[in-house]
Design brief:
The structure is a homodimer of 198-residue chains.
Chain A: H1 8-23, H2 30-36, H3 41-47, H4 61-72, H5 79-91, H6 99-110, H7 113-136, H8 141-162, H9 171-186, H10 189-195
Helix pairs in contact in A: 1-2, 4-5, 4-7, 5-8, 5-9, 7-8, 8-9
Chain lengths: 198, 198
């Protein structure tokens, strides 16, 4: 979820994930993580608030990518076209050489309810930021929330598929397909609602 | 989120919310909650795992209502028609005389990140259960996840509106409107995707 750059933060990130995968998140201490790359606990806490945060993007780069995508859409774009643009921009964040890292990270998160909670909060925060960007572009409040939440849903479903065993397609390609599936699912919904309860 | 019935569990629930609203979630102890209704801490823990759980439906009655709605839809129903049916069933869980309780509960949750995380996990668990019910009814895996997540999104947006200041409409009426808005948002999306990036 962060740009791949050298430096202590990135070394700690890599070391933490390796330890979480090997011996479990609960069983790993901050001291161990720091020591494994020749750093101190104190340095760790200069980069991350806690043991959970090391698995998340601390600088909100992913959120910035989403918002840049919303703002890159043309003035005439419908709300979900702004979302499609945001998804395309954010996909650049997950090149194919990050897929294995993402797989390992997700396996750690899935095994730990506290990490799962933190991830859901991050996604909800992302959705709220996207909704705000849509509103700033003139989308009505409720429509903005719905579109933003649909966007993070598509992102989540596509991301899960991207890290599935054997998946080879790019995240952008999968997102495009999932957006199409969402469109197909809602086709006919307006008619069905007018018809009343099935 | 729970059936309104007498008994210790319900008394603890009412007392807890009152204390959380009055003095804050962090500042309230389990002992205080129990004492305020003449019960012991030990009794509290017979009903709830922790201080957070007292704000959530411990018996998964809401989830059961959603699943009953999915299964009540006719065999020919499209995935989002099953979702519409689930939303209608679940709305019965929130009659108008629960609105004020729900408002207070939400104000406590919004003020506390740990509660917000717990709520998001509950919603994600609900979405996963709905997706499973859709798959059991023959919906393809990815479509089931998308439809279920869209359903909890609509539920969340409608619920937020239901407890908004001055809102008078029933939850069912609002859900119907929000579903219609989702349908309107996605109209034209398939065409826009075929056209390529805007």
């Amino acid at each position: 979820m962060v740009r791949w750059e050298p430096g202590a933060g990135e070394r700690l990130r890599v070391a933490a994930l390796e330890l979480y995968v090997r011996q479990g998140f609960e069983q790993t201490t901050v001291e161990e993580i720091a020591r494994s790359v020749g750093l101190t606990e104190r340095t760790f806490f200069r980069y991350f608030a806690d043991k959970r945060e090391v698995l998340f993007d601390p600088q909100n780069l992913l959120q910035e990518a989403f918002l840049a995508g919303v703002n890159a859409a043309p003035p005439t774009a419908a709300p979900l076209e702004m979302i499609a643009s945001a998804l395309a921009t954010s996909a650049a964040f997950f090149p194919d050489d990050r897929r294995n890292w993402s797989r390992q990270r997700q396996s750690v998160i899935a095994a730990n309810p506290a990490l799962k909670e933190r991830e859901l909060l991050k996604l909800a925060t992302l959705a709220a930021a996207i909704a705000e960007a849509l509103r700033a572009r003139g989308v009505a409040a409720q429509a903005a929330t719905l579109a933003a939440e649909s966007g993070t849903t598509v992102f989540g479903v596509a991301f899960t598929q991207w890290i599935a065993d054997g998946e080879q397609r790019s995240l952008a390609a999968i997102e495009h397909e999932v957006l199409g599936e969402l469109a197909a699912l809602t086709t006919g919904l307006a008619t069905a609602l007018d018809r009343g309860p099935a």
